[in-house]
Structures are given as C-alpha cells and as structure tokens.
C-alpha cells in the first residue's frame, strides 16, 4: 500500500528518476573519491593500485585505464551468465571520467596533514558514494559482478574468499606495475567494510529493504 506523502513507499518504477539521480551522484562521487586518494599519495585500494600501475606503464590516464579495465571485466560476465544493469554500464564509464576530472581540478597537497585530510575525505566519500550507487539498485559494479557470478557458478565457494583472492592478486600485480601501496591501502581496507555496511542500507529504497532484498555490500 502506498502512503500519501511518503516517497519511499512508492513503487520502484515510480521513483526511477530519483534512483537514476542517486546513481549518477554516487558514481561521480566515487570517481572524485579516487582522485582524492590518488592526490594524497598515501596508498590506494587494490583495484586502484592496479589502475595506477597500468596508467604508469601505458601513459594513459588513470580514468581511461579504469574504463578499459571495467569494460574488459564486464566481458568476463558473459561466460558467467551475468546480466548487467544500467548501473553496471554507467559504472564503467562515469567513474573513469569523474576520476580524471577530479585529478584535473583538485590541488596536490604537500603538507602531511593536508595529505591525510585528502585520504580521510577520499575514504569517507568512497563509502558514501558506494552506498548511493549500490542503494539505487540499478546494477552492481563490473568487478563485483565478476565475483558474485563466479560464486553462483561454483556453489559452496565463499564470496569473501573469492573476493580476497582476486583483490590480493590485483593488488600484487598493481604494486609490481608501480601502483602506490601504503597506509592508505590499509586504512581503506579497514574502513570501507563498516562504511558500506552502514551506508548501503541507508541509501537503499525502503521497498528493497526487506529480508533477502537488500543489495549486497558491493563496490566498483
């Protein structure tokens, strides 16, 4: 039953414009959060260590690399029989464009206090952005779809174990390519789980918040 004056009680299709706006804000915020952590130069999350390493090796911008890697990962969904949503496809393009725009506009901090401030702001914004775009319920990020799709084809496999193995492999490869690993990498690993746990339900439509309906804590 729809309660008059309560937007959260409207059917999801009636709230599509709001969800699309939430998705766009979340994806742009995610890209800006990446730029903040890159400018802090104190270490990145595993996938961004990989993106940065490839960027250094190829000379392409980290945003362009993010788009290319996202598109290649999305191709791996085909044998896993995963179906992307509009949020998945948008994730591939928007985050890459947003991180390059953020790097072009943000200053590079030099005092350690400013760098730490950028790092903290980047991690917090990343958590908020994750909650926004996943809470819009329009499709997971390509990297998380890869993990969930693999687990779906291999029943009994833990998504936590699969995710850990993939991200450790990505982190190690990125480090060897020249990506930045540091205290920011550890800080991100410790903070993003609790942030996502709190913020994803906060930004998820009420009609998706019932048992078994809430989106998982997935990231880009």
Give an overview of the whole structure.
The structure is a single chain. The chain is mostly helical and 220 residues long. Helix content is 69%, strand content 0%. It has one domain. The chain has helices at 16-40, 46-58, 62-75, 77-80, 86-105, 112-135, 142-153, 159-177, 183-203. The longest helix is centred in the first third of the chain and has 25 residues, at 16-40. The two termini are 34 Å apart. Residues 1-9 and 210-214 have low confidence and may be disordered.
Major β-sheet profile:
none
Distance between the termini: 34 Å
Strand content: under 5%
Runs with pLDDT <50, length 5+?
1-9, 210-214
Fold blueprint:
Elements: H1 16-40, H2 46-58, H3 62-75, H4 77-80, H5 86-105, H6 112-135, H7 142-153, H8 159-177, H9 183-203
Helix pairs in contact: 1-5, 1-6, 2-3, 2-8, 3-5, 3-7, 6-9, 7-8
Task: Jot down its keywords.
single chain; 220 residues; mainly alpha; globular; disordered N terminus
